Amino acid sequence: SEGNFTGESWDRHRHVREVPTDAFGDISFGGLGQKTGKYVRVSTDTSPELLYRLLTEQWKLSPPNLLISVTGGAKNFYLKARLKNMFHRGLIKVAQTTGAWIISGGMHTGVMKHVGQAVRDHALSSAMQGQIVAIGVATWGMIHNREALVHSEVR
């Protein structure tokens, strides 16, 4: 494993401190169409069953028939317009016709950016017909303005 500037290898158990949090709620994504979504901060040890119950019972998402996990590097790359449109249309069509959840790293870079753009463009062009579920799973340290997501009593 790669070390940091002190020569010490990073170890999750030594370098991560878990504390109670109330970082959850609704979030507005700025820009065109201003869509709102939900967010929650969880531990890496949170059970998948608990997360699934949160998504289906509390957030009322329909259980998926399929999970589409889109992964790849965070390095930005250029897609020709035709290929980009094919990717966007194909991803949305598969998600709509199967009742899938699309899961990605939740960042605005690399392939994740293309996933986000496809979902955003679909949401802007079709009012409520064929709602798409997109879930971004990002590490807390990568979230811009993350302090604003923690309620004041806990800060």
From TrEMBL:
<dbReference type="GO" id="GO:0099604">
    <property type="term" value="F:ligand-gated calcium channel activity"/>
</dbReference>
<protein>
    <recommendedName>
        <fullName>TRPM SLOG domain-containing protein</fullName>
    </recommendedName>
</protein>
<dbReference type="GO" id="GO:0005886">
    <property type="term" value="C:plasma membrane"/>
</dbReference>
<dbReference type="InterPro" id="IPR041491">
    <property type="entry name" value="TRPM_SLOG"/>
</dbReference>
<dbReference type="Pfam" id="PF18139">
    <property type="entry name" value="LSDAT_euk"/>
</dbReference>
<feature type="domain" description="TRPM SLOG">
    <location>
        <begin position="38"/>
        <end position="153"/>
    </location>
</feature>
<dbReference type="InterPro" id="IPR050927">
    <property type="entry name" value="TRPM"/>
</dbReference>
